[in-house]
Write a structure and sequence with these properties.
385 residues; mainly alpha; 3 domains; 61% helix
């Protein structure tokens, strides 16, 4: 898995550069520096987090599989037909997981991270979710009952994730019959849009057949507006991950009755806040009742004026994050658990420093001090390697 990620990084980078260059040439640039660095930082944090939540990511599935099948692996799954059946079965499970992420508040609290960007480009594909496996593993356990080996599940996950990368672009138009059968840029633009008719549509990760069957398909007709209904403007990577959970906790806390509190958790985001004539105000945001409403509490943020110096520092900071993250991934198997946790904490600290500088909540001197601390932790954690 780590080798595939390391191999994919330069490929994804080249494709993003080509997309940016094409947009520049045709005068339709879809990238913004702050947004792009935030997207990529979330992607790196998500990948590093798998070291911590790997028990949920694949561990529980593996335990169930071996409990059911012991060491037996059905040779059917290694055939071409077996791979195809596995892909379709996985896509069916993934459809319902994805749909639940939009229609249940506790699941939306994690998935919302992927939808927060107001832009739509290939970097958004890498804006992955760190807390998703904690509950998401449940939806894939039926595949263990079918006998799909854990290694094949991981392979299928990788194939679908790689496939979904190219659908995050505005530079590929509608593709005729292909849009009707498969997930495509047009279909996925609809999924990321907040236009009223596009909300909670096109959940399919590979096939659109499930959306057609279960009434969630919507073709692209008018231009898409991206983001969440309650805009999220923070570039703090840690706040990005926990903000929706904080909002949900506050909503539950202010809701009367145990049954109503529980329904706030599992029903659509914002359930119950409009039972009266006006919405309940939580933090700094007024929460609506749509299943795509984002329950954000965004701290005030001043958009920085981009100077050459600020751009240079932010880019260097980001590349330092990439450097240490890739080094860790390349040596993950040889790293002890305590040293791995130290490394992940330090890399996340560097990511936080990048977001804080872009949001102008720290200055250059404070960033330098933070980096010195993180580099010291990294030295102690990685020197045994």
């Amino acid at each position: 898995m780590e080798e595939i990620v390391i191999f994919a990084i330069p490929i994804f980078t080249v494709l993003m550069v080509l997309e940016f260059a094409y947009g520049w040439v045709v005068k339709r640039n879809t990238y913004a520096l702050t947004d792009t660095l935030s997207n990529l930082s979330q992607g790196l944090i998500s990948r590093l987090s798998q070291f911590v939540n790997q028990f949920f990511h694949i561990g529980i599935y593996t335990l169930l599989y071996h409990w059911l099948w012991r060491d037996y692996e059905n040779p059917f799954w290694a055939t071409g037909l077996g791979l195809a059946v596995g892909l379709i079965a996985f896509d069916f499970c993934d459809y319902w997981f994805h749909r639940t992420e939009h229609e249940s508040a506790i699941f939306w609290a994690s998935h919302v991270v992927h939808h927060q960007s107001k832009h739509y480009n290939l970097s958004v594909a890498l804006r992955q979710v760190s807390t998703e496996p904690i509950f998401g593993f449940i939806f894939y356990l039926p595949l263990a009952l079918l006998g799909m080996p854990p290694k094949q599940l991981l392979l299928t996950v990788i194939l679908v994730l790689f496939y979904q990368f190219w659908v995050h672009t505005e530079h590929i138009g509608k593709l005729g019959w292909f849009d009707y059968v498969f997930d495509s840029p047009s279909n996925h633009r609809v999924h990321h849009a907040v236009n009223p008719q596009y909300l909670d549509k096109n959940y399919g990760g590979f096939l659109m057949v499930w959306d057609h069957l279960f009434g969630s398909y919507e073709p692209e007709v008018e231009p898409c507006v991206y983001g969440t209904k309650k805009p999220f403007d923070s570039v703090d990577p840690l706040w990005t991950i926990i903000s929706e959970y904080v909002s949900l906790f506050k909503l539950v806390w202010h809701t009367q009755g145990l049954g109503a509190k529980w329904r706030c958790i599992y029903k659509p985001p914002g359930w119950g806040v409009a039972d009266s004539n006006s919405a309940v105000s939580i933090g700094t945001s007024s929460i609506g009742t749509s299943s795509s409403d984002a329950l954000h509490i965004s701290p005030p943020q001043t958009q920085p004026r981009w100077t050459k110096g600020l751009i240079t520092v932010c880019v260097l900071q980001f590349f330092s994050v990439v450097l240490f993250a890739v080094f860790f991934l390349a040596n993950e198997d040889a790293t002890s658990y305590p040293h791995a946790l130290q490394t992940i904490a330090a890399v996340v600290g560097l990511c936080w420093g990048l977001g804080a500088l872009m949001g102008r909540t720290i200055n250059y001197a404070q960033l330098l001090f933070l980096n010195a601390v993180c580099y010291g932790v990294l030295y102690l954690a990685l020197s045994p390697l």
